[in-house]
Specification:
The chain is mainly alpha-helical and 514 residues long. It is built from 26 helices and 6 strands. Helix content is 65%, strand content 5%. It comes from Triticum urartu.
Length: 514
């Protein structure tokens, strides 16, 4: 073109951005700027979108400055694009500042901030923003609802998730793939896997995102065979798995102790030319091997893989070494973790537990001294349960709850019934250097047991008791829940960091492997 108008430049930049050629879009803008061409809101918004795709925060800040100079920063297209980049680059405070300064907020602006909150793990803030949007009469879109349902799923908010499901049906968005996938996810994360599958089965047409949501749901609930059947069905229907599908299958095999099946899916991934294996897939495979006691093989895979080992991998290996008393390899993994995560006190605790499990109390004291000296903080174990619209949180040895006397009385009643059937406390699960009687007392008042006792005295007898926990459930509490389910004829569902445990008639859905 001998003569290029502003529309020509804008069209070319937008074309590069939409085609995924973000670097070319940025280079063309740079050339345009050097030539002193006129810049419009469309020029800036298209170029900033290219920054979002590349997480190019420095370039975005420069473009934000140009927008200020040209008085285009309050434009809805430009402001939304800047907000989106800041949110994607974990600069959520800056994103909020841009949002508040915008005089005219479009539906895309609201949706971008909703998604930003969710992507940054600020789920409660996303729900607060949603309430504000409703008060202001902001129209709901499928993108908004999908993000808010994801927030409910992450917080396991069953009531809010159900209410949003009703809103979605009223708005006519229940057929949207991404909204449907979020609904499948929220019911699965709230412990209602049957509802999750019913929703999945109701969908006449499904894309890979919906299949992935259902497979991940089955994985969380230890429904291994159901997940494997879905994976095979995907192949039969020529819906090709993506990186998320393989990740869910490897995670399933890890938590179910299915080593050979894990190898099978990992080999399928490696041979699949349409999917590029990433560090998360290798992390899951390390977990598959480590959890099954093959810690040396997991160690070899760490050295062979085409990625640098992450903190997650070393943490998985350290946890496996704790379960299988491999203190030499545990020390190596811990040293790597101390370098990668110096502020994570949980790593020091895990190494201490490895030594305690093997009776090496001298090294236990040393590991605990290192924890104290490092200033790193360990996360306190908590369990919580919802009753009558209120969340009740418990810690080990809880004393502040208003119903604590009734809770302890109920717990004593359960232990009394357990003694009649010769139930024995797993004192080896307490890793303190104290007498066995003291170990038994320490284990007796773990947070999940207190939450269970509260559920039994507060909830109707015909509904499942759902307990959430921020750490992995210990072996003694797991055994306690199984026996308590048998004695009380109740269904208990415990969601720990790994998965959902369904305790019924004296057994657990995880098959005692988690």
């Amino acid at each position: 073109m001998l003569a290029r108008s502003i529309v020509s430049w804008n069209t070319m930049i937008a074309g590069y951005t939409q085609s995924g050629e973000d670097v070319q879009a940025l280079k063309l803008f740079q050339r345009m700027h050097r030539e002193g061409r006129q810049l419009t809101e469309f020029t800036l918004s298209s170029t900033i979108c290219a920054c979002a795709a590349k997480y190019a925060i420095n370039e975005c800040k420069q473009l934000h400055t140009i927008a200020f100079k040209l008085a285009l920063d309050s434009n809805s297209f430009v402001g939304t694009a800047i907000l989106d980049v800041y949110a994607k680059c974990n600069m959520i405070k800056d994103a909020c500042w841009v949002f508040e300064k915008m005089p005219d907020k479009t539906l895309v602006t609201w949706s971008s901030l909703f998604a930003g909150y969710v992507q940054n793990g600020l789920h409660e803030e996303a729900l607060c923003l949603f309430r504000n949007a409703q008060r202001e009469g902001v129209k709901l879109t499928e993108f908004t609802l999908s993000a808010i349902i994801s927030a409910c799923a992450s917080l396991a908010l069953k009531i809010e998730g159900t209410q949003l499901h009703a809103v979605i049906v009223k708005c006519g968005f229940h057929g949207n793939f991404f909204v449907a996938a979020s609904l499948v996810d929220v019911y699965a994360r709230c412990g209602q896997i049957e509802k999750s599958y019913a929703l999945f089965a109701y969908m006449e047409q499904k894309n890979v995102v919906i299949w992935n949501a259902m497979i991940a749901g089955f994985s969380r609930h230890a429904h291994s065979w159901e997940a494997m059947i879905l994976f095979e069905k995907m192949h039969q229907l020529r819906i090709f798995p993506n990186e998320v599908t393989y990740l869910s299958m490897l995670s399933l095999c890890s938590h179910a102790g299915l080593v050979e099946e894990g190898r099978h899916y990992f080999n399928l991934l490696i041979s699949d030319r349409t999917v590029e294996p990433n560090v998360l897939h290798y992390s899951c495979m390390v977990d598959v091997l480590g959890r099954s006691g093959k810690t040396d093989e997991a160690w070899e895979l760490l050295h062979k893989m085409p990625f640098e080992p992450t903190a997650s991998m070393w943490g998985s290996l350290l946890g496996s070494c704790r379960n299988y008393n491999n203190s030499d390899l545990a020390r190596i993994a811990a040293e790597q973790l101390f370098q990668l995560e110096p502020d994570n006190g949980g790593n020091h605790v895990l190494l201490s537990n490895v030594y305690a499990a093997s009776g090496n109390w001298e090294n236990v004291l040393m590991a605990r001294k290192y924890l104290k000296d490092s200033g790193a903080k360990k996360e306190m174990g908590r369990s919580w349960i919802e009753a009558k619209g209120k969340i009740h949180v418990f810690v080990v040895g809880e004393r502040k709850h208003p119903a604590i006397t009734d809770i302890y009385n109920k717990l004593e009643e359960i232990y009394h019934d357990m003694k009649k059937i010769a139930h024995i406390t797993k004192i080896e699960c307490d890793l303190h250097d104290v007498h066995d009687d003291q170990k038994e007392d320490l284990l007796k008042h773990h947070s999940e047991k207190l939450a269970l006792a509260f559920g039994l005295i507060s909830l109707p007898p015909n509904i499942p008791i759902i307990i959430h926990k921020n750490l992995r459930i210990c072996g003694d509490c797991h055994s306690f829940m199984k026996v308590a389910a048998h004695i009380t004829k109740h269904l208990f569902i415990v969601r720990d960091t790994n998965r959902f445990h369904h305790f019924k008639d004296g057994s657990c859905s995880c098959g005692d492997f988690w």
